[in-house]
Specification:
Elements: E1 3-6, H1 10-22, E2 35-36, E3 39-40, H2 51-59, H3 61-71, E4 73-86, E5 91-95, E6 102-109, E7 118-119, E8 131-136, E9 141-143, E10 152-164
Antiparallel strand pairs: 1-8, 2-5, 3-4, 4-10, 5-9, 6-8, 6-10, 7-9
Amino acid sequence: MIDVYNFKSHKKFKRELLKLINNIPKTKLNTNKIESLNHTDWYLPPETSRAYWSLFKDLLKDWKTHMCFKTHSKRCLIHNYWFQQYLKNDHHNWHNHSACQFSSVYYLELSNSKMATEFFEGSKINVKEGDIITFPSYLYHRSPVNKINKRKTVIVFNSSFEQLDLEY
């Protein structure tokens, strides 16, 4: 299951989220075979303030309801979160996420759908800026090389669902 959810508050909060992300101390990764990112908070200490997440997590209520319905669950747990910004020639090679059931990518800036997440097993997704894709975390995926002069910004988070919401 790969789910595409339209985040209805995207236009309202895009500028504020980007401003808060820009306030995070700059961490640029050197280009290598695994990843090349312009800016991310993945490698910052856990105690680093992440005001963008304080805002964004409160906006995920409808997404949580949607995903609980899709997974027949009563509860959604978000384990961790981070952002990544890609400039021209940046990328993140094939990888998956462990210790969770699902991974989600919110496309905060996505000027070209060809820059969307690709899946190793071949699933094709049709996404646009403002969408959140959610997929099983074991699926190998990547962010392709950014071949354009527009920045791509994503907020990524891992989650699990529990307490089956079915009566029998």
